[in-house]
């Protein structure tokens, strides 16, 4: 175990202990956010394979990019939960923790005698968070769910395309991440309530619910108009002009959400006559005459380069951006100025670059991250320090393959 993993982490959640049974993405992202906020995370992983993402290429010195991205600042305890002894170790740890996080299908943790009712009997203040694809009472409740499944059922894939093109998933795994984001909201609210009542809560989050909750104005368009919103690509369903416009050598994003920005944009284009043109004077008319307006804009912008328009749009105070690749986004000056990338060192893997948490408190970012742990890297220390087991007992558990250790 590295020094940063044994030292208490700083942050608003310092002193909070989390037992994390989750794997893949929906769940591990949540526990990583809690770790960034200062919580101590004990990640429970299967002995043979660990979190399935440990096996997803590409790798850095044998460690998966996927696992690295979601598991900083956590301790790894490798445990056979199907064995009575392994489940008992998990129960004893849960009795000492503030939060339990899991993302199995509904019913799995109950069958392991690790469900909410079983664990709160020993720890009434326990906050137990369950993330699943659909929730226990959904018609889909027994179906496996991954990010793309939630995206397909939420309407996101239908909307994420240019008109007339095939449905496409978001490259951002928002189905998984939305479940994690809402679970953090629920956990923090339950922690606040527990400070007043002393009682825990069972926080239940479904990935599909979370994506539907994030539809925002799209669902309201349907409720208000009765019309099913249709794909508009980079354009906005009700704001014009908004989206990607071609230049002589690429594309530029323009977003005119207010009348002021629309007027600024028309002046930027040297097309001030559009401001008073009755077809484009107000929101409703611009939306009704979108095609005609966009033809005028595209004809004007195609005559100059992307760089020309970025400079001119900024000069006229019009919201704008180039369209960057992932590499370009990570290398842009903003990321460096905001200190969004840190380098951590693992004793076996070496230096790892990580994207930091975006949260600042009093102008300061989170505590320095600890590198993602090797499978079972912290098993011995956790059993000794948390449960008081002696070395012979720990060795026997490892020999019986109830516990896994990185050095075994």
How many helices does DSSP assign?
Answer: 20
Helix content: 25-40%
Structural class: alpha/beta
User: What is the total number of structural domains?
Assistant: 2
Q: Which percent band covers the strand fraction?
A: 15-25%
What's the Cα radius of gyration? 25 Å
Could you tell me how far the N terminus lies from the C terminus, measured between alpha carbons in angstroms?
Answer: 14 Å
Main sheet specs? 7 strands, mixed
Low-pLDDT residue intervals, each spanning 5 or more residues: 1-6
Mean pLDDT: 95
In what order do the strands lie side by side in the largest sheet? 8-7-6-1-2-5-14
List how many beta strands DSSP finds.
14
CATH class category of the largest domain = Alpha Beta
CATH fold-level assignment of the largest domain: Rossmann fold
The oligomeric status of these chains comes to single chain
**Rough shape?**
elongated
CATH superfamily of the largest domain: Crotonobetainyl-coa:carnitine coa-transferase, domain 1
The CATH level-2 architecture of the largest domain is identified as 3-Layer(aba) Sandwich
InterPro entries: CoA-transferase_III_domain, CoA-Trfase_fam_III, CoA-Trfase_III_dom3_sf, CoA-Trfase_III_dom_1_sf
Keywords: Transferase
Organism: Puniceibacterium sediminis
Pfam family, one: CoA_transf_3
Explain the overall architecture.
The strands form four sheets. The protein has a seven-stranded mixed beta sheet with strand order 8-7-6-1-2-5-14, with helices on both faces. Strands 9-10-11 form a three-stranded antiparallel beta sheet, with helices on one face. The chain has a two-stranded antiparallel ribbon with strand order 3-4. Mean pLDDT is 95; it is low at 1-6. Helix 7 (147-154) crosses helix 9 and helix 7 crosses helix 10 (207-213). Helix content is 40%, strand content 15%. It folds into two domains: 3-214 and 333-404, Rossmann fold (3-Layer(aba) Sandwich), CATH 3.40.50; 242-324, formyl-coa transferase, domain 3 (2-Layer Sandwich), CATH 3.30.1540. The chain is elongated and about 85 Å long. It has 20 helices and 14 strands. It is of the alpha/beta class and 408 residues long.
């Amino acid at each position: 175990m590295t020094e940063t993993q044994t030292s208490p982490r700083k942050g608003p959640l310092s002193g909070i202990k989390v037992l994390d049974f989750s794997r893949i993405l929906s769940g591990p992202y949540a526990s990583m956010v809690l770790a960034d906020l200062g919580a101590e995370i004990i990640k429970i992983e299967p002995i043979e394979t660990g979190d399935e993402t440990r096996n997803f290429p590409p790798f850095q010195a044998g460690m998966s990019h996927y696992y690295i991205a979601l598991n900083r600042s956590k301790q790894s305890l490798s445990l056979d939960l199907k064995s009575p002894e392994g489940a008992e170790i998990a129960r004893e740890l849960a009795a000492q923790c503030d939060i339990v996080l899991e993302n199995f299908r509904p019913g799995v943790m109950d069958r392991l005698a690790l469900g909410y009712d079983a664990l709160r009997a020993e720890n009434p203040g326990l906050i137990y968070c369950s993330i699943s694809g659909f929730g226990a009472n959904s018609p889909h409740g027994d179906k496996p769910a991954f990010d793309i499944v939630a995206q397909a059922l939420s309407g996101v894939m239908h909307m994420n395309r240019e008109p007339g093109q095939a449905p496409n998933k978001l490259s951002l795994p928002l189905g998984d991440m939305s479940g994690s984001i809402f679970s953090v909201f629920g956990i923090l609210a339950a922690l606040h309530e527990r400070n007043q009542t002393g009682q825990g809560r069972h926080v239940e989050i479904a990935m599909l619910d979370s994506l539907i909750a994030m539809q925002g104005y799209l669902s309201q368009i349907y409720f208000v108009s009765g019309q099913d919103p249709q794909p508009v690509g980079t354009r906005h369903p009700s704001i014009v002009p908004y989206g990607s416009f071609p230049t002589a050598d690429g594309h530029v994003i323009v977003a005119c959400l207010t009348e002021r920005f629309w007027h600024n944009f028309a002046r930027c284009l040297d097309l001030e006559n559009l401001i008073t043109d009755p077809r484009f004077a107000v929101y409703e008319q611009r939306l009704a005459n979108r095609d005609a307006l966009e033809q005028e804009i595209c004809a004007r912008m195609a005559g100059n380069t992307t760089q020309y328009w970025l400079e001119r749009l900024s000069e006229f105070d019009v919201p704008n951006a180039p369209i960057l690749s992932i590499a370009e986004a990570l290398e842009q000056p903003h990321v460096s100025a905001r200190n969004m990338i840190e380098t951590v060192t693992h004793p076996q893997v070496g230096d790892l670059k990580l994207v930091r948490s975006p949260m600042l408190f009093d102008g300061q970012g989170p505590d320095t991250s600890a590198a993602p742990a090797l499978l079972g890297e912290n098993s011995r220390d956790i059993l000794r320090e948390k449960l008081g087991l002696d070395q012979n007992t720990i060795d026997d558990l490892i020999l019986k393959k109830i516990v896994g250790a990185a050095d075994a």
